[in-house]
Amino acid sequence: MHHFQYRNGTLHAEEIGVPELAEKYGTPLYVYSAATLRRHFQAFDSAFNGLKHMTCYSVKANSNLSVLRLLAEMGAGMDIVSGGELYRALKAGVPASKIVYSGVGKKAQEIREALEADILMFNVESMAELERINKVAKSMGKVARVGFRINPDVDPKTHPYISTGMKKNKFGLDIEHSLKAYQRAKEMDAVEPVGMDCHIGSQLTTIEPFLEALDKLIAFYNRLKDMGISISYLDLGGGLGITYNEEEPPHPAEFGKALSEKLQELPLTVIFEPGRVISGNAGIMVTEVVYTKKTPSRDFVIVDAAMNDLIRPSLYDSYHRIAEVQQNGRDELTVDVVGPICESGDFLARDREMPAVHEGELLAVFSAGAYGFTMSSNYNSRRRACELLVDGDTVTVARARESYEDLVRGE
Ligand code: LLP
User: Fold this and answer.
1) What is the average pLDDT score of the chain?
2) Which of 58, 79, 210 for a ligand 1 pocket mutation test, highest count of atoms within 8 Å of Cβ?
3) Is 386 a catalytic residue?
4) Into which CATH architecture does domain 4-32+280-408 fall?
């Protein structure tokens, strides 16, 4: 459920009409709903009420400071993957004791910054990284808390670009190497193994792959215990999917129930790193129709948002629902919704049936709150869009639209 609904044929973001927002702030425009973010965080977090757990929102999904601050106020921790995300999380007021750090390529400087902040734990993805963390921590006179990211070799049945827990992926350590890694970590003086971690992929729409991975992790945990290694945290990553079109992913409550049954017995604090399920349907992108164009083979709707603003359709062939901001009751047409960028891959939808639209009308691209703005770029020297956070009838400019000056800053 989200708070983007039609009232008398006009799309509203909570209490505010979207046309008003587009008029005042221009397009393309990202609009996030605070009530939806709160609701989604609450639904996810409370699904694990019976367990000792932490919900560490995955910053990469939507890293706007206003969004992070709102979640931090609700008690969220954060999952980060770079020095930049650490900077954002701290700036948003997230306590370092609730920050976990994943990623295959952490640089010494980033490790130093995370140790300086005293984050909860590094999710280590290779032996080389373990050595690096030990070295950096030692030079600072600190001890780094680590967990190893275990690659359980489970097929998450999602898009290949966002599958991460299969043998062929670059992520984590396979089970046998993980055992060696814990042994090695135990010998090191500037590293303390405190957890284990896995993240098998994103936009999963069934629970089975999660359960399969969890079974493997529990078996591994028991082997660790037998080796005399005791840990305190089990990080199960993110990945729960959302409805873009007709997917029917499990509700967080169902997800929580299924996992909790297996987790109940373990004397561990469980960490989750949800991204998309919190922010995905809490955001829309609003765009204006610049032209319509009929060619002998197709009808095009040319809009002022492009692949630089929302790359998911171009990159993963992802579906995003697109609808008129003011319902117009016209007959449906099959169209390609495309942007102004000089690439044939620049589209938001292809072969889409939707009511005919005219120049100057507004369209809303739904489910754009995760991996939307965060994956945007300046390609074709397009200024990155404005982001708004709506809370009831209050609007905050969460990020101002870039200026031409911003475009050349540093050049
Ligand atoms: N934890 C780790 C270690 C991750 O790599 C990710 C996502 C998450 C948590 C959060 O996953 P989520 O709950 O959002 O599924 N750009 C792609 C998605 C890439 C996901 C990368 N990792 C997309 O637009 O679909």
Assistant:
1) 96
2) 58
3) no
4) Beta Barrel (2.40)
